[in-house]
Amino acid sequence: MGRSFFKYIFVVVVLVLVIYTGIKMLKEDSQVEEQVDQTSKVSTIQKDLRFAIAELDTINPILSNNRNVHEITKVIYEPLVTLDENYKLQYALAQEIVKQDDTTYIVKLRQGVLWQDGSNFTQTDVHYTINIIKNEGINTVYKDNLRYLTEYKEIDDYTFELHLSQPVPFFEYNLTFPIMCANQYGSEEEFTNPDRNVAPIGTGPFKIEFSDGGSIRLVRNDIYWDNSKKPAAEEIIVKLYSSIGEVYNAFKSGELDIMTVTANNVEEYIGTLGYNKIEYKSRDYDFMAFNTEATSVSDVAIRKAISKIIDKNSMVVSCLGSGYISSNFSLDMGNWLYTRDLTVATDTEEARRILEEAGFVYRNNSWIREGRRIDINIAVNSNNEARVRVAENIAQQLENFGIRVSVFQYSPERYADMLNNHEYECIITGIQCSFNPSIRTFFGEGNLANYYNEEVFDLINKVENTTDEGELYDSYRTIFDRYLEDVPYIGLYRNTNIVVYNQGLVGSISPNDFNLYHNIYKWYRQ
User: Fold this and answer.
1) pLDDT tens readout for residues 273-316
2) CA proximity to 449, closest of 412, 422, 418, 415
3) CA 405, CA 392: separation in Å to the nearest integer?
4) Same domain, 235 and 315
5) Residue 367's beta-bridge partner residues?
6) pLDDT tens profile 341-359
7) Whole-number Å distance between alpha carbons of 248 and 270
8) What is the tally of structural domains in the chain?
9) First CA to last CA distance, the chain
10) Are 144 and 213 within one domain?
11) Residue 37: which of 235, 268, 232 has the closest Cα?
12) Residue 415: domain span
């Protein structure tokens, strides 16, 4: 009886252990599957992805000037902070950043992060990377990120202090450069050594397993610190091509899963079938600035009426074509602090009402008040053919409404002088929008419109000194309300970029100008 009882207990214990082990294994295997589309059958999942680099210079993202390299290496190397699909700041290797005053920041690093060789990540690696970027002998696209950084002070292995020579709005957004492993290179002089840059290690979810003349193989980093983002894909094959034309051909033949396209006539290169396409807004933004101190456009009624007359959509179609989209403001490229739609619908009847209420009378095809008609000049760079066409289109639209417009084309040198000295009534210009949400360019001291609104000025200073999301959201919304009331600028258009991807690629494909591979841990092929 006793022997049978113990035998029974033994069998039960064995069964429990077997069941527990089986459940544990299933749970571990399902960690990857939980990231993928549950409507797909597991048996159809292929756990490799196929990317491309055209004209590789180096896989080191600090040294590379290749857009493909900067896109792909985001899965290998990580920054202190990163940006999500809406350009919202997220901590990566940094755990916390505290702004002590206008020019002092304390950075606390995430502990427990390992380099892909198993060694510890510490502030020494950050200090090394910063020294590399600031090294005058090294050419890097990240040089401007640290232009005003004057001092780095170590506090402990995971904490350091940064000092700037002057305040930089939203400086935290400048800490998006990839951090490199100090031990991989040794001295700063060794950083550019090609032998050290065949397969440099990172802290990201994928690591370089090998690199040859034809491809680079990335494999999943099993010691990646963020367990919630364990990739579904086990490897990425990055194929190397000598030209973008070869990349197009490889994509057409089904050898690649995804690529970015900047050409407006993408269909001519890869056809129209067999792939999905996502068009997203780039950072290149063009707008018209009114000099609010110029007599001809100092009246807000005139500026408001003009904003109601211009049909931006038709202007884009007739003057620019594909690859462009009408735009209302610098942040409408998808920034989370674009807190309200600033679209001004074309409404000539409303424009008429605005001018009449301001005392203008429509007579002899002109709008006249106190014997003077509305007559404005638009300055444009003669070397920028797209802006010249846009200026002439705007002039024609306003002329049709009864506002006389003269378009003046200036040489690049004279145009630059006028821009710097605000010697214009209206000017068509553009910027490459920053990844950070600063709008000081438009509303701060010395802005292009000579625009002053005390409430807006106060809010600009306020938003640059707070991290409270609710306060930021409310402040930006108020600024935008004043913008619509005062119309110091009229947003015109921006470029667009295109991502094309194979129909067999599954996952959340949500590219923006900062990162093509958001949510790559959910991607797989079927």
Assistant:
1) 889 999 999 999 999 999 999 999 999 999 999 999 999 999 99
2) 422
3) 9
4) no
5) 362
6) 999 999 999 999 999 999 9
7) 6
8) 2
9) 57
10) yes
11) 232
12) 281-497
